[in-house]
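User: We ran a pulldown and think these components assemble together. Before we commit to crystallization trials, I'd like a predicted model of the whole complex to look at. Sequences follow.
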Amino acid sequence: MSETIKKFLYLNRKAPYGTIYAWESLEVVLIGAAFDQEVRLMFLDDGVYQLTTGQDTTAVGMKNFSPTYRTLGDYEVKSIYVDKDSLEARGLTQDDVVQIAWEDWETEEEVENIVEVVDAARVSELMEESDVIFSF
Amino acid sequence: MKFAIQINEGPYQHQASDSAYMFTKAALEKGHEIFRVFFYHDGVNNGTRLTTPPQDDRNIVNRWAELAEQYKIESPTKDEDGNEVMQTELVVCVAAAQRRGIVDEGEAKRNSKDATNIHPRFRISGLGQLIEAAIQSDRLVVFGD
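Assistant: Here's a predicted model for the assembly, 281 residues in total across the polymer chains.
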């Protein structure tokens, strides 16, 4: 669709429910897959809750869209980063967040889990090397 | 420099649209190009022509429209007959607009609604327009929380 390939970084900073930002951010990622860019997602602040396992939204009457994150590997998303400080501040570890697999359809190269916990220095590095930063 | 602007918050409730307007205006006055202004989340509410603020307050919707008019924030496209026409580049996200009742004629027809409220200087289109703007512009500047 476009010849330019840019490094996209989606920053997800907000809790999955309570506001619509998380869900509408995910919609951008899903639509954006058609544009063949180099896409990365980062979860920080309350955004780390978006990836937690065992979400149950029955009581709040909202659609539980957390299963969608596990399909991101099919939407051109190759790397997903979670900020370590944000996890720790909320008493969470990598064990509390989902695993997301990725497979290259052409080479059949597989990665079992593309979710990586990174420290603050790596967070700024990743921001620095991106061409476009979407902040939600 | 070529800028794409993304606005994630509604008018009056939040400063995002005001800040984005001032940034956009300043950039244009300095001779920069605005490729597109994309309204997302509650930002779609910046596109209703029915906004009626008190007389001693700024009219955020009209202010965007006037800026777009003055600096021609628009791009060439083809109409149904294949003639080249200009289209506005104040773009409201369709998915976000549907949820929040921002409606143009096409949407009203498709979804059997009895009214429209989009300002004529704005148009409703898909999220792909945001991605495209980010690819085509030198900088994407996001306004919101």
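Residues 16 and 23 of chain B are 10 Å apart (CA to CA). That may be worth checking against your pulldown data before setting up trials.

User: Thanks, that helps.
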